[in-house]
Predict the 3D structure of the following.
Amino acid sequence: MNNSPIKLILQGPGANPSSVQQLTTQIALPQPRQVAQQAWRCDLSEVLSTGALDHLKTLCQSLQLDYALLAADIQLQNFKLLVMDMDSTLITIECIDEIADMQGLKSEVAAITEAAMRGALDFAESLQRRVALLKGLDESALARVFEQRLELTLGAHSMLHAMKQAGLRTVLVSGGFTYFTERLEHELELDVSHANRLEVVDGKLTGRVLGNIVDAQAKKSTVIEQSGELGVPTTAAIVIGDGANDLAMMSVAGLSIAFRAKPVVQTKAHVALNYSGLDGVLNLFL
């Protein structure tokens, strides 16, 4: 990026002519041009200095703007694969926390989830601990979570439609559960889904997961395998996630997007979206 033209994309609920002009003027950036309803683009001839970048981050936070610094010529057509996390990314909830709520254990399970997502706990161990707490719960609780609590993230439909129109393979890979991913795969017409399978005996959860746990390495392997099937390098993949267990698959992607993510993820992804919906992903290519 250092030797090539770059662009700055500014977007989010706080994006309007006044806020964008205020930001670009304070940092002495080129005149921005509006490229979408709540997105502006500045074309830069050189990389921002450390001081200018720090100033940009501070102003964006105060104005509720997302920013992205990308190669000026990046296009959606450069990519062949979209790989998404599910919980708190494609959907607004953490399914396991909501399932635990049916057992009166939401706060206890949510605390473990939070620690795992910020990287403070081993994911596989944390999942086994959380699932064990669900032992004895009626399987119907899963249906109640799906029907009553699960909501798609704002902008998900628009993003997926555009990705499919552009010919990308759409993959949902989750440390959550197949009960949810398989239904989302069907409803959203995704190409592939991969997640953990809860063991159910006589209509009740046993507190165990069947087979190998879908952890960080499994997510990374999914990106590698799906890229291989398409005959493209993993740099042809866009990866979107929010937790520490998404970092491995992000590391091999051509474009990694931290969506409402934990700090450790935001610092390592190519782009962080904290205020925009998932349709904000599309504005990165304008």
Remarks:
- The domain at 1-73 is CATH 3.30.70.260 (Alpha-Beta Plaits).
- The first strand starts at residue 6 and ends at 11.
